[in-house]
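Components:
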Amino acid sequence: MSGGGGGGTTSNLRPKFVPKTPPCMNTCPNHVDIRGFITSISLAEKKGKSYDEAYTEAFYRIAETNVIPATIGRVCPHPCETACNRINVDESVSINKLERTVGDFAIEKGLPLKKLTDEKRQEKIAIIGAGPAGLTCAYHLARRGYNVTIFEAFPKAGGMLRYGIPAYRLPRNILDAEIKRIQDLGVEIRCNTAIGREISYDDLKNEYNAVFVGIGAHKGLNLNVSGEEAPNVYTGAEFLHKINSGESIDLGNKVIVIGGGDTAIDAARVAKRLGADTTILYRRTIKEMPAIDEEIEEAQKEGITMEFLAAPIEVLKNGNMAKAIKCIRMELKEADGSGRPRPVPIEGSEFITDATTIISAISQEPDFSGLEQFKHGRDWTKIDFKGETEFAGTYAGGDVIELSTVTVANSHGRKAADAVDHHFRSQTFEPEEKRFPPIISHEKMRLDFYEKLPRIPIKSLPVDERFGDLEKEVNSTYSHEEALAESKRCMSCGMCFNCEKCWMYCQVNAVVKTADLDHPFAFKLELCDGCKKCAEECPCGYIEMY
Ligand SMILES: Cc1cc2nc3c(=O)[nH]c(=O)nc-3n(C[C@H](O)[C@H](O)[C@H](O)COP(=O)(O)OP(=O)(O)OC[C@H]3O[C@@H](n4cnc5c(N)ncnc54)[C@H](O)[C@@H]3O)c2cc1C
Ligand code: SF4
Ligand code: SF4
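Structure:
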């Protein structure tokens, strides 16, 4: 058939609104409803919502998955942004900074977390470790009505968020506020209580109906070179733990940090703030450094020297104190098991660098003392698709499975909570990804609809104002105007954002406006002649013809 209202080809096909999964949400390990929370802000005016209403809605959308958005909004390496469809127009949406803005709003307004039900479950759940994995698991169980107690070995909750990540990246008032909100929901946190030492795992199992193991990986790895037992040689985890616990350390004026991950960068930036001339020694090149790119850039801006393709072979001492490090130059050969090029020593290339303090930040591992049953030889704790260990009723997640990120720890904690809940309700658990609608690719969208708009940068402290104080936060939160402008860059991939294109292009009035602000259009299929114009013009790929 041809002709018809749109002037194009008519057909027997009829349009349907089909929500899709945006790639940002699919890629976020914790599957935060990114499109949902950003459009809560960007569409607020169209929906007649105030600033407060929009941010409150955005917060509760995030809190469906991520209970610590102000924290995550400061530290997440944001893989979601790498997948953002907007990259095909100009640059990705600044998702992480928007998440932080909403998180800060929630703290400022004292927004409480909400329970999903008034039901009070009889089952008691024990959580070992108050890091992001344990805290998240606790929240998702408490909101479903369970009795939750977290046992934490350290004096305060937060795990690596408190004892690893420095305060200039994550201010402690922000972390404290987000933890308190979880406690206010009814979660009890018992600090200074190490499971496997103060209380045995068996006793815990007997008293509680389910257990979640989220003990992280706090033991710094040694270099395995002679001389490293000197008291001025620290592991990165040990050094940051001491500093973040308020201890002062006399570093001297020349610090060498070994490693290329987040711990190495954080240790180096802390040492620099404490006044030491600081060098990072890494055995590969900057390209292979596993640390977050922005952190590497900031470290360089702060004047931290980076010596690549070099590895330590001996700590040289004066008496019992380290005074220098002997290194060897490396060259890169074909990839190893990690997929990165393999560093190989170059014979005869040894050199010596003086040091007043040496920090070995090469990696961490879990401390399984008293919990040895969760260690598998050289491997760490194993879990199945539900997050359950081989011990029925005991779940695990976070760094104790594999060193990863805060959002991965959150996702493990959330999944385990979901699995525990399904278990006690005798329901079959299936991974949430199975329920996601198809992912919308930029190729299925009308990218020409979207105007090029520069990404709104965040403000950061000038470098010369950063030193001498470990608490001074480097990056700032978007203002409301900045957040609003950035939110409008989101293309609402796969979901209506009320652009009216379908309604404007339909010449037979088969698209009508509704009073429902969340679903502003409907089809009058009896008027439709199948010209497909609505589907062709919809910028976000929400309409399909069937
Ligand atoms: C220096 C550093 C910087 C980092 N920077 C980033 C970053 O910028 N972005 C990012 O996403 N990730 C970062 N990470 C990684 C991130 O911090 C971890 O992936 C995350 O904290 C893991 O969470 P978790 O809950 O599994 O473990 P943790 O945060 O390690 O928490 C585990 C908790 O369990 C407690 N515990 C241990 N044993 C016991 C026991 N027997 N009984 C009771 N409690 C116990 C510990 O005291 C701790 O509080 C960084 C890590 C480090 C070390
Ligand atoms: S948690 Fe990380 S990956 Fe997920 S939306 Fe936030 S910034 Fe993106
Ligand atoms: S444009 Fe918006 S919805 Fe689309 S991928 Fe990026 S953040 Fe997600």
